[in-house]
């Protein structure tokens, strides 16, 4: 004899099955409002703009190299955030625990420029203009333009503790990332007992945005935005080698030790050209921030011209280093002009 099962029981059983298979996905709107992005910095963005680049490096340049500064800044077109908490240290070489300030915004505010999702390393393309509802966490007594931020001051507690407090006060989700030295994997980020740092979790945000990846900065896990780090490395190696720049100190990560040969020139030229072409086709041509793409295109063009110029000089037993610095930099946007400057 069979027992009669009511419709209510069947429905509850169906709900339990859905939960067990984790098929209850959050909507795009919920993710955008509940996930807060955090950018730690030593520089107070007094004008309301977070700027991409490497910060002021003019003290590293000679007087006749001043205009190299703009090229160097245009090399890095991304600004990086963590999700749900202050980013965790990476080994012994990257640590933001001692930063003075934190910018906190809901992910919703990033969507127009967001190109990569990763709880440990979200990044947007180009300079980021802050809105009036943007939260600034700063040491007590910090003077700011009251129209630019919602200010939260801290004293007697760490920046990390204050960031956690602010996110909770705003109703955001508490996220806890793992600490480690590996940057070639998506590190676990626990929210409500589950790892949310997965492509499946972020799927509602990805839908309809073909260039948005859930990837890594340096490795091809997902999408093509990792190519930006390879483009950056190629550009910096070119500028450091040909113009004798030296950024090898703790204040920057622009240290390149390249043993330059003709084969090396060909390899860097090939890699830079290929990486930029593929990134531009799959990301740059689709994003809204065309200025960032144009700026990056400018510095890539300069470096490709310099590399081709060096290959041209190799045939004559010559090198860029032996040429007039002023003559080279005046003509580096046009390869034919470079050749004629000999």
Which structural class fits the helix and strand makeup?
alpha+beta
Mean of residue pLDDT values:
84
Order of helices and strands: HHEEHEEEEEEEHEEEHHHHHH
Shape annotation = globular
Low-confidence stretches: 17-24, 250-256
**How many β-strand stretches?**
12
Q: Which bin fits the share of residues in helices?
A: 25-40%
Assembly of the depicted chains: single chain
Distance between the termini: 100 Å
Q: State which percent range the strand residues make up.
A: 5-15%
In spatial order, strands of the major sheet run 5-6-3-1-4-8-9
Give the radius of gyration.
24 Å
Q: How many structurally independent domains?
A: 2
Total helical segments: 10
Main pleated sheet:
7 strands, mixed
Notes on the structure:
By secondary structure, the chain is α+β, with helices and mostly antiparallel strands. Helix content is 37%, strand content 13%. It has 2 domains: 30-206, no CATH class; 227-340, no CATH class. It has 10 helices and 12 strands. The strands form 3 sheets. It has a 7-stranded mixed sheet with strand order 5-6-3-1-4-8-9. β11 and β12 (194-195) form a beta hairpin. α6 crosses α8 (290-314). The termini are far apart.
List keywords for this structure.
342 residues; alpha+beta; 2 domains; 7-stranded mixed sheet
Nutshell version of this structure?
By secondary structure, the chain is α+β, with helices and mostly antiparallel strands. The chain has 10 helices and 12 strands.
Question: Topology of this protein?
Answer:
Layout: H1 7-20, H2 28-34, E1 36-41, E2 49-50, H3 68-75, E3 78-83, E4 101-106, E5 114-116, E6 122-125, E7 128-129, E8 135-139, E9 150-154, H4 159-169, E10 176-177, E11 189-191, E12 194-195, H5 199-206, H6 227-243, H7 262-284, H8 290-314, H9 325-331, H10 335-340
Parallel strand pairs: 8-9
Antiparallel strand pairs: 1-3, 1-4, 2-7, 3-6, 4-8, 5-6, 10-11, 11-12
């Amino acid at each position: 004899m069979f027992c009669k099962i009511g419709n209510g029981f069947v429905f509850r059983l169906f709900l339990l099955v859905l939960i067990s298979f984790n098929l209850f996905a959050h909507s795009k709107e919920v993710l955008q409002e509940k996930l807060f992005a955090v950018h730690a910095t030593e520089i107070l963005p007094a004008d309301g703009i977070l700027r991409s680049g490497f910060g002021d490096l003019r003290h590293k340049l000679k007087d006749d190299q001043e205009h190299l500064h703009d090229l160097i800044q245009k090399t890095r077109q991304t600004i990086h955030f963590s999700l749900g908490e202050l980013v965790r240290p990476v080994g012994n070489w990257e640590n933001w625990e001692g930063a003075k300030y934190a910018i906190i915004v809901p992910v919703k505010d990033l969507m127009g420029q967001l190109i990569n999702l990763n709880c440990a390393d979200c990044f947007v393309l180009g300079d980021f203009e802050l809105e009036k509802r943007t939260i600034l966490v700063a040491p007590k007594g910090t003077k700011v333009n009251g129209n630019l931020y919602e200010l939260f001051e801290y004293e007697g507690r760490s920046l990390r503790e204050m960031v956690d407090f602010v996110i909770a006060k705003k109703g955001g989700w508490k996220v806890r990332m793992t600490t480690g030295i590996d940057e070639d994997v998506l590190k676990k980020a626990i929210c409500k007992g589950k790892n949310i740092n997965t492509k499946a979790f972020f799927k509602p945000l990805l839908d309809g945005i073909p260039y948005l990846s859930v990837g890594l900065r340096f490795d091809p896990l997902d999408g093509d935005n990792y190519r930006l780090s390879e483009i950056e490395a190629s550009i910096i190696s070119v500028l450091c080698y040909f113009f004798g720049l030296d950024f090898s100190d703790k204040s920057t990560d622009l240290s390149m030790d390249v043993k330059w040969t003709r084969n090396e020139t060909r390899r860097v030229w090939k890699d830079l050209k290929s990486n930029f072409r593929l990134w531009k086709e799959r990301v740059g041509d689709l994003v809204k921030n065309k200025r960032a793409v144009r700026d990056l295109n400018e510095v890539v063009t300069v470096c490709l011209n310099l590399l081709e110029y060096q290959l041209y000089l190799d045939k004559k037993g010559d090198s860029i280093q032996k040429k007039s610095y002023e003559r080279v930099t005046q003509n580096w946007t046009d390869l034919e002009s470079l050749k004629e400057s000999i």
